[in-house]
Amino acid sequence: MRRVGVTAWEEGVQDQCVTKELNTLLTALYVLIDDHVVPARAGRGRRPELTDSELITLAVAQVLQRFPSERRWVRHIRADREWRAMFPAMPTQSGYHKRLKTAEPLLCKAIVTLAACCPSWFDDVWMTDATPVPCGMSRETVKRSDLAGHAGYGYCASHSRWYWGLKLYLVCTGDGMPIMWCLANPKLGERDVLAALLDRNHHLIRTGQILLADKGFAGKHFKQLTTAMGLELLRPDRKDETYRNGNLGGVRQWIESVQPDPQRPTRPRTPRRPHPSRCVHPSRPTPAGHGRGHLAQLDHQHDQQTITDRVRPLTPTSRNHSSRRR
Predict the structure, then answer these.
(1) Is 225 exposed, middle or buried (0-12, 13-18, 19+ CB in 10 A)?
(2) Helix (H), strand (E) at residue 296
(3) Which residues contact 40 (CB under 8 A, 6 or more apart)?
């Protein structure tokens, strides 16, 4: 990838109006990754046609362009003339996937480097929480999944149900930018996992940093551990302990609004298009399902029968069996 537009990038950061041109954005991203993420290549051997800096730039651009599938992303690069001009040595989908797996340390370093460029990176307040990540809904999935040995059974108190999968531990800023994260077995203690996560990323912790957490991270040993790392742990007080911080007002709501929920729909406010096979047909009965517990339709209608209203309310005594009666 050619280093064009470097001067425009340096001026654009200082100007009030920054251009939104894709070529300028990718050029600035490539220069940042090549200077601060990818080390200089040393040693003998044939140099790859697609350098590591270009590979990391493509991976970041794939997330920015919202392409979850690598196959569609590679197809898009090869079909677009502007993308082909910037990345003429684009490998196939299998080659792109192998290169990304090999460059995992560079990807992690690129994420930290890009996060350090954000103003919220220097915030004095961090927040942490753990949320379930279900990975399977059937016993056959549990048996055949490649996550066997890593995932396990856990209980989600917010949804009041058991699940099989992992648990996401996230430490982020007030605006939701991740600082450190990990996936762990749900059977492991939350304080033990978070302590190991903080110990592994202790170089990111600044003295006097405030860490907001919930009541699940209460404990004398965990408090001493965070204090030794230079963190000031703030959490709501439990009912069986003396007053320290109180209930901290809306801290719990703030944490819940920032932390992602994998079990929640991506866009909950967007109405879902009705599937053709699930649409209500005038000659097809619609059983009472989720969201229609107070309504039910007749099982059938004769040709000569006239019904003014096909929807009839259910009585509390016949709610469970009226949809099955004829």
Answers:
(1) middle
(2) strand 295-297
(3) none
Q: Tell me the per-residue pLDDT of 85-127, one tens digit each, with 9 for 90 and over.
A: 888 888 899 999 999 999 999 998 998 888 888 888 888 889 8
Roughly how many angstroms between the first and final C-alpha of the chain, as a whole number?
Answer: 70
Is the Cα dihedral 228, 234, 235, 239 positive or negative?
A: positive
pLDDT band at 286 (very low <50, low <70, confident <90, very high): very low
String of DSSP letters for 202-259: GGG--TTEEEE--GGG--HHHHHHHHHTTEEEE-PPPTTS--SSTT-TTHHHHHHHHS
Q: What is the C-alpha to C-alpha distance for residues 254 and 257, in angstroms, rounded to an integer?
A: 5
The mean pLDDT value for 143-158 works out to: 84
How far apart (Å, rounded) are the C-alpha atoms in residues 51 and 34?
A: 10
C-alpha dist (Å) from residue 257 to 171, 175, 250: 14, 10, 11
The reported pLDDT for the residue numbered 138 is 84
Round to whole Å and give the CA distance between 119 and 122.
6
Predicted confidence (pLDDT) at residue 246 exceeds the cutoff of 60: yes
- Return phi, psi of residue 164, to 5°: -120, 125
Amino acid identity of 322?
Answer: S
